[in-house]
Design a protein that fits this description.
Strand content: 5-15%
Order of helices and strands: EHEHHEHHEHHEH
Strand order of the largest sheet: 2-3-1-4-5
Helix content: 55-70%
Number of helices: 8
Bound molecules: thymidine-5'-phosphate
Distance between the termini: 14 Å
Structural class: alpha/beta
Largest sheet: 5 strands, parallel
Amino acid sequence: MNEGKFITLEGGEGVGKSTNMLFIKEQLEKEGIKVITTREPGGTGFAEKIRALLLEKNREEKVTEKAELLLMFAARAQHIDFIIQPALTKGLWVLCDRFTDATYAYQGGGRSMDMKMIAWLEDKVQGSLRPDLTLLLDAPIDVGIDRASQRGKLDRFESEKSSFFEKVREVYLQRAKLYPQVIKVINADQDLDKVQGEIRIQLQKLLVIE
Ligand code: TMP
């Protein structure tokens, strides 16, 4: 039984995840909640090495879609066993920058991989672990890509074509429709104080049902 809550933040490239990770953490801490922040792929020493492999661009050997998918879940397995589950069991809240919805969106949507295979891996790797709340920062893809390019060198995912990101966004929104109790869409294409106002409302709802 988990005593802490598991919150994930999702969205395409350049939608403002980093700024809002900090904001969410502060909001929870103001309520006296002990929260750890982490990210995927990554979150442990070994998983961060997998992350570096996944994001590296311009290597001679192409990474196959299957290898990419399995590496995402390999990193996730480490992260769950060593960071996420122990924290939740101790009663800490976990705030994670991306989780399995990103796999559905990027590998299932962007790379058109079999959603059933993703669901199978999700069950095997996570058991019953699912987020209590997922905040999906949504913006038209040109807005996000512009912001991401201003940050400097693009990684292997950020260098994908816009059709890839259209599919990523589409799958994220489909999943939000499928799981409206958990996945809350936040309009990220507006002033930051409005974005954060929407986030605050969703956090308050979670705190009420706690
Ligand atoms: P970040 O730059 O937002 O931290 O995420 C790293 C990249 O990894 C991002 O482009 C999305 C991608 N990704 C996947 O393709 N599948 C996944 O399951 C996760 C967690 C991330």
